[in-house]
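Support request, please re-run this one:
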Amino acid sequence: MDANGRGVPQDYLEAARWYQLAADQGNARAQDNLGVRHVLGDGVPQDDVQAVRLYRLAADQGHARAQFNLGLMYGAGEGVPQDYVEAHLWFNLSAAQSSGEDRERAVKARDIVAGGMTAGQVAEAQRRAREWTPTPEP
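Re-run finished. Output below.
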């Protein structure tokens, strides 16, 4: 048994290949996982723009972790121009459908981003979150 505890060697290339196959079929979890691979450069080239694209596909379907990850990218300006309104929107959506530590993490990130925003920007992000509807998985 190796370090991943599953009895098989860790193979980022093979994992990325399987994530890509599922992501191409619209699987939100695979899209999010492949986005993480692109941020880290594990099994695929490191590419923040591609990560954002994949996170967005999954986030649009309502995948809470992808929404959180997309908020991180907007908050840091990685793969997209920095946009606190967008970051707040995605953190808010993630928090709304998460629980426990995941919810606490999304709320904390949302509140940190809000600290650098005007009241009008926060209101805009909240309005957009209220009006947001998920796109069904294909």
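The chain is about 65% helix and 0% strand. The two ends are 37 Å apart (CA to CA).
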